[in-house]
Specification:
Pfam families: PGA_cap. The chain is of the alpha/beta class. The chain has helices at 4-25, 77-85, 94-102, 136-141, 157-170, 182-185, 229-239, 261-273, 348-361, and strands spanning 62-70, 105-110, 113-114, 129-130, 145-147, 174-176, 178-179, 189-193, 196-204, 221-222, 244-250, 277-281, 289-292, 295-298, 303-305, 311-320, 328-338, 341-344, 366-367, 373-374. Helices cover 27% and strands 25% of the residues. The strands form 5 sheets. Strands 1, 2, 5, 6, 15, 16, 17 and 18 form an 8-stranded mixed β-sheet that branches. Strands 8-9-11-12-14-13 form a 6-stranded mixed β-sheet.
Length: 380
Amino acid sequence: MKNPLEAVKIFLGVVCVAGAFAAAAFAPGSGAGQPAASVPDPAPAPSATPAPSPSPTPTPEVTLAFTGDVNFADDWYNMLHYAKTGGVEDCFDPLLLEEMRGADILLSNNEFAFSHRGSPMPGKQFTFCSRPENAAIWQQLGVDVVSLANNHCFDYGADAFADTLTALSDADIAYVGAGADLEEAMTPRYFTADGLTIGYVACTRAEKYILTPEAGEDSPGVLRCYDPELAVQVIEEADSRCDYLVVYVHWGTEYSTQLEQAQTDLATLFAEAGADLIVGSHPHILQGAGWRGDVPVLYSLGNFWFNMETVDTALLTVTLTGPGAENATVRLIPCVQTGGRTSVLTDEGEKERILDHLNAISESGWFDADGVLHPPEEAA
């Protein structure tokens, strides 16, 4: 039989070992006796956000406007009326002024000189000159650019012509078709409106006896188109630099609705060179319209505000919704000049009379009752 004391020692050793294992099992940080760590749910996959639709490009809308011949000569009848009445509001009716001032770009024909200097050109029956301060009248009418390619801008000589360029520049009115030298006379003018660049070129071949000098390398004058080579060169260059190109031409026979062969030939050349619109002046009366492909030709807009006579006239407007002639709507607003005042015709019978007359004398195309010009392939 074993020694009882030895048995007690063995028992106590077993108890101590068991207690040590138990203490270790439940010691802090051991993980034992702790709740099992929860495994997080996987994060949901991000939902795809649709790319925003691109905003549609807004359609541009640009309004151009054009008049025929205008004369501010101090001693001429309409300017005497202006001086007597005291302002453009008595020389143009409110409807017409609204149309003119509302255009993004308005072009008119400056058929006179601005100067206190010079004397009438010898050999000319009619010569026109206005005080330089009258250039502000263009601003009052809403005009942005004028054509000097005509047979009266040089009526009072070289000094007066130089004063004309200065007066227009001082009034912030652009000019085209003439200049201090040939380079300036051949320089197109460009305007940007609603994202579209509009170009303007002007030239002249309007004198039976050629008195107005042609601009030279070092001499002032106009851009002529009796020989169209230089004008075609300018048109081709301008066409490459703008979205819509206007060519304004001083041509034709005064007081005749019969077109000259030179007018129809030049219209073809200018359209082929890149013109999107061809507008004429000089005959002092309305002439008909025509087309060269999709290029409209308005052969003459007549006298717009020139004298005291009663004469049919018009304001031409073009609405552009994009580049090129294919995005243009051309509209003629029938007007009358009488007693030194030009007004929009509101009488439907009178409007119809003018539009019917233009349809009868037009080379091609037709005007509808609203004055919109349509190409010949669009049936009336």
